[in-house]
Specification:
about 120 residues, mainly beta, 7-stranded mixed sheet, 4-stranded antiparallel sheet, 11 strands, about 50% strand, globular
Length: about 120
């Protein structure tokens, strides 16, 4: 059974940090392209960051560059998102998504978690 589970969200003040984690079971983790997405209330879902299964190709949305760091530990079947210098506009539900793909970052994602809420107060 495939399970994708995010954790690490919470309430933090502006300027603070959080580290999100995503574990994937029932999948061959070290063959997955994995990404973080987020969706704020009333807004469309947006991509945050994507990482190749080897971890050697990474991309970030412009708004996150320099503040967020994506990483993965294939031995632990875990994806991370270190978020620093958080802003109120980072408030959203954060989702982990994964797929097997010939592209280093999948264009579509088959496996999604339920999300973890991040709230940044001003």
């Amino acid at each position: 059974q495939v399970q994708v589970v995010e954790s690490g969200g919470g309430l933090v003040q502006a300027g603070g940090s959080l580290r999100l984690s995503c574990t994937a079971s029932g999948l061959t983790f070290d063959h997955l392209g994995i990404a973080w997405f987020r969706q704020a209330p009333g807004k469309e879902r947006e991509g945050v960051s994507c990482i190749h299964w080897r971890g050697d190709n990474i991309d970030y949305a412009d708004a996150m560059k320099g503040r967020f760091t994506i990483s993965r530990d294939n031995a632990k079947n875990t994806l991370y998102l270190q978020m620093n210098s958080l802003k109120p506009e980072d408030t959203a539900m954060y989702y982990c998504a994964a797929a097997y793909s010939g592209s280093w970052c999948p264009t579509t994602f088959k496996y999604w978690g339920q999300g973890t809420q991040v709230t940044v107060s001003s």
